[in-house]
Recover the amino acids of this structure.
């Protein structure tokens, strides 16, 4: 019956080929409604693939509503023609073949739906939590000042963003040692949209998109749908390993994507010499670099080294900054700094897709920065963050030193825990009283890590969350 189930020599993913073969038989009536599919082991034998590939194919079939799981019985073909009166398109099928790709965005839902406990503590939320809420009064004051003005006289808005805001951001970036102007700045609503704009503007189908792995881009990226080749390169304590990256460079169109400050999820800060080596390599191969540096304003013992953008002498870096991680309230203001000709091209793409940040929010951020309120706020943030860093290290040693290890030199904002004898995918499955991002969210083969953000919750919540995590670990021993 299954002799015609054979994979072809195709560039398409194996699991998608398997799903297409089964879908074809369902739609042509070879597989009748309520027919039980062969077991996973049998499907592995038929297609000569791994169990993981078969599982992914089955997940695709379930997602597209062609089959359903009957507990303790197996996978059964659904009756896709069960309602003659229903002539609606199969939107799931259309969505699955559309240009958009989820990446692993469904991991977010997987996290939020993994707990049935209303009192669950999230120790992985990436951002400043309730201990930083004093910002609200500053924003209220700034908003009152703005609303007292005659806003009809403000005419500095164009496709690049509010001119005074672009000027002050350019000034702040110039403090790193590279003199730029407002002409080098484009205001955008979010870093993710900046990544998307850059991908649309400068990459094509089958371009190489090189990034340091593990990476949050695998969880919530919006570049996947462009059809680029996502190539993860291993890191060490200083950042992406240049020699391993060089092996992936070719004549094919390529872009390098990096988090230079507090890499998410590992917390790694790229070293100055590593930055210089990367820029040298990019210059040799004439490859553009996309740098996300949205955490620059939060530092601990000393300010961060200059960014790749500030060190670059070859106009090769697209630099993305944001207030998303430094403010407790998401004001939806980010920016791109790049050579003027690059900003021109990106602004055209931005205009075509009608991507504009709020005028009011641009005014509020300008007021916060020009008045000095933002810098005063940051001083308080750093004081609290220093305390939280020391507390988190102390609590980890108290509760998890026998089960996990971490690099204290790269554990300021994000902490990347590596477990010694615990499968973190199984830990995630048995845990519902504490929420965390497991390693497989960032790299699907990772079953040893979890990510923690020590700013996300209060001191008491962090300790209670680690106690709960320890208790759940004990269930797996």
């Amino acid at each position: 019956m299954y002799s015609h189930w054979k994979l072809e020599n195709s560039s398409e993913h194996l699991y998608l080929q398997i799903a297409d073969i089964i879908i074809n038989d369902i739609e042509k009536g070879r597989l009748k409604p309520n027919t039980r599919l062969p077991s996973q082991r049998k499907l592995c034998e038929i297609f000569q693939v791994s169990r993981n590939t078969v599982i992914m194919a089955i997940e695709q079939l379930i997602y597209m509503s062609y089959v359903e799981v009957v507990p303790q019985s197996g996978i059964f073909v659904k009756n896709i023609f069960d309602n003659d009166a229903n002539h609606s398109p199969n939107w799931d099928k259309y969505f699955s073949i559309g240009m958009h790709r989820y990446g692993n965005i469904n991991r977010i839902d997987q996290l939020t739906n993994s707990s049935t406990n209303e009192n669950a503590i999230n120790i992985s939320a990436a951002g400043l939590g309730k201990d930083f809420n004093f910002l609200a009064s500053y924003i209220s004051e700034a908003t009152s000042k703005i609303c007292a003005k005659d806003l009809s006289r403000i005419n500095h808005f164009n496709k690049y963003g509010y001119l005074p805001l672009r000027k002050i951001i350019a000034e702040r970036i110039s403090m790193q040692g590279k003199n730029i102007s407002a002409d080098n700045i484009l205001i955008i609503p979010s870093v993710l949209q900046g990544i998307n704009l850059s991908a649309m503007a400068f990459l094509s189908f089958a371009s190489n998109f090189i990034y340091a792995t593990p990476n949050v881009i695998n969880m919530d990226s919006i570049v996947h749908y462009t059809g680029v080749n996502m190539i993860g390169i291993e890191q060490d304590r200083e950042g992406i390993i240049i020699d391993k990256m060089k092996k992936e460079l070719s004549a094919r169109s390529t872009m390098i994507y990096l988090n230079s400050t507090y890499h998410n999820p590992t917390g790694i800060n790229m070293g100055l010499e590593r930055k210089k080596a990367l820029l040298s390599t990019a210059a040799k191969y004439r490859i553009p670099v996309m740098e996300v540096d949205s955490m620059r304003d939060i530092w601990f013992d000393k300010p961060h080294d200059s960014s790749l953008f500030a060190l670059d002498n070859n106009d090769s870096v697209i630099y993305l900054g944001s207030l998303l991680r430094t403010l407790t309230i998401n004001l939806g203001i980010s920016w791109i700094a790049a050579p003027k000709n690059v900003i021109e091209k990106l602004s055209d793409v931005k205009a075509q897709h009608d991507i504009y940040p709020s005028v009011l929010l641009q005014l509020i951020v300008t007021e916060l920065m020009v008045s000095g309120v933002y810098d005063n706020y940051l001083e308080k943030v750093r004081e609290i963050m220093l305390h939280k860093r020391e507390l988190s290290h102390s609590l980890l040693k108290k509760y998890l030193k026998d089960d996990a290890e971490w690099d204290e030199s790269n554990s300021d904002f994000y902490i990347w825990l590596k477990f010694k004898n615990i499968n973190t995918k199984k830990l995630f499955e048995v845990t519902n009283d504490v929420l965390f991002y497991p390693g497989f969210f960032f790299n699907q083969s990772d079953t040893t890590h979890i990510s923690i953000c020590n700013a996300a919750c209060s001191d008491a919540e962090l300790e209670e969350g680690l106690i709960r995590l320890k208790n759940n670990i004990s269930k797996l021993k």
